Amino acid sequence: MQFLMWAVEFLLFTSFFTNPVSSQSETPPGVCSGSDRAALLGFKASILKDTTGFLSTWTGADCCNGGWEGVECGGAAGRVTRLILQNPSLNSDGVYMKGFLSPSLSKLQFLEIMVISGMKKITGKLPESFSNLTHLTNLVLDDNFLQGSIPSSIGHLRNLQTISLSGNHLTGQIPASLGNLKNLLQLNLAKNFLTGPIPFALNSLRGLQTLDLGLNSLSGSIPGFLGQLQNLTSLVLTSNKFSGQIPISLCNLFQLSELSIDQNQLIGRIPTQIGNLKSVSVLRLGSNKLTGQIPESISHLQNLWNLNLSRNLLTNPLPDFSRGLPSLLSIDLSYNNLDLRTVPNWIRFRELSDVHLAGCKLRGPLPNFTKPDSLSTLDLSDNYFTNGISNFLEKMTSLQGAKISNNLLNGDLSSIRLPNQISTLDLHSNRLFGSLSRVFSNETNKFLEVIDLSRNQISGIIPEFSGGLNLKVVNLASNKISGHIPSSVSNVAKLERFDISRNRITGTIPTSLGLLMKLQWLDLAINGISGKIPESLLGIEGLRHASFRANRLCGEIPQGRPFNIFPAAAYAHNLCLCGKPLPPCKGKRK
């Protein structure tokens, strides 16, 4: 750090003599202001590691025209007006900046836009001195690792139109001073650790268009004054601790396109006035404690395409929406107190992409969807369906995920025909029988990533695994599968979870299992597997769970992490396993 600071001072010293600046007016047109350059280099010095490569371009005297990545200047005086550093690879753990947010940036007196987002490892507090950036209109510091509270001094930045601080580790309460920002259009404080109520001072933000406070620990009631913010188009309060009833005033937000207040502790009925939200396209009220019936007025929502009322205490009767909701694409009514018996015709006859009706007390044969090719995800778990599985999924040519677990489905697994592009299949806890040969066919299921067939009555052997499979999760636990573990299991190179516990598997553990470098969960418990636990398994460095209990294994447990630190119960009830965490093998010192 000292060297970096010395380097900054040296650069400032040399730039003083090579580009003498007596006043702003004497700065050559378009050439970077010396004070702004110093402020930027102060930020660069505070970043200890930069794998984005952005800051490596910050060299030379001219920060305006010298190719400094993310830096833009305006006017003849060469003052920095925009600093935009966005991670180009958000999904890559190896692309980041590590360091802290330097207060030196507060010296960029003409800065209008500051975007430093997705850097993951920029830590420390938001500098109080940012209140000096009086020209700032956009402050975007998403997806870093900023800590501490939001400084109330941000309320001095009267020109701010956008504040986005989501995806950090900010704590404390939302400062009431944000209510001073009369020009604010977007406020996003989601995915932090904020607590307390929504301050009443936000009532003055009459121009606000989007408010996202989701995924925090905010509490209290949802304030009624939010219904007075008539310009709101998006209100997201998902996954907090809000209690009380849904304020009727929210139904006055006629420009609202998204209302997401799911995953809270809300009680009472859904207001019948919900049908006044003529512009709403996304309505998420799931995972609360809402009671009563679903109001028929929802049918008036002509633009609604996503309706999620799942995991509440809603009761019959379910309204007939046959003549309403013309834009509906996605519906989730799962896990309420609904007793539907059959899938309503207004759902079966529509061209829907997502149908989730888990735990709705549906019975009899699986439903006939008249437009199956539109379905992308389907969840009919925890019902009482009995038959019709063989050809049920075949015509769902766009289907990516199907969950029909914990039903009473009776059928031959080998007769089930799957659509080619399906990636997730969950049929656990049914009464399926037959062999696994068709399910693991490379020709029909090259996109399959997750398959759960546990707790059925499947028999036969585990088939050979050909190359090219993309499986990540295979759960075959609690069936009647026999034979051995095929050595070709190593062909499933992306496998992360492999559970074949509670079957009738015999033979030995193939050494090729140790080639599954991405494996995190391995459960071979309660079978008839014999021989040793192969040393090759030590190569699986990311393994977090393993169980070999209740088999016929013998010999020394591989003496390396994590196998020698798993609990002793993971190796219990075998023939003669020994070595840590069990007692030492005979003839070996403790």
Automatic annotation (TrEMBL):
InterPro entries reported for this sequence: Leu-rich_rpt (IPR001611), LRR_dom_sf (IPR032675), LRR_N_plant-typ (IPR013210), LRR_R13L4/SHOC2-like (IPR055414), PGIP (IPR051848)
Provide the protein name. Answer: Leucine-rich repeat-containing N-terminal plant-type domain-containing protein
Family annotation (SUPFAM superfamilies): L domain-like
Q: What residue stretch is flagged as signal peptide? A: 1-23
Query: Any idea which UniProt keywords this protein has?
Result: Leucine-rich repeat, Repeat, Signal
Q: Which residues form a coiled coil?
A: none
Q: Where is the Leucine-rich repeat-containing N-terminal plant-type domain?
A: 35-73
Q: List where in the cell it is found.
A: Cell envelope
- Top-rank lineage group of the source organism: Eukaryota
Give the record's family classification.
Answer: Belongs to the polygalacturonase-inhibiting protein family.
Q: Where is the Disease resistance R13L4/SHOC-2-like LRR domain?
A: 102-235
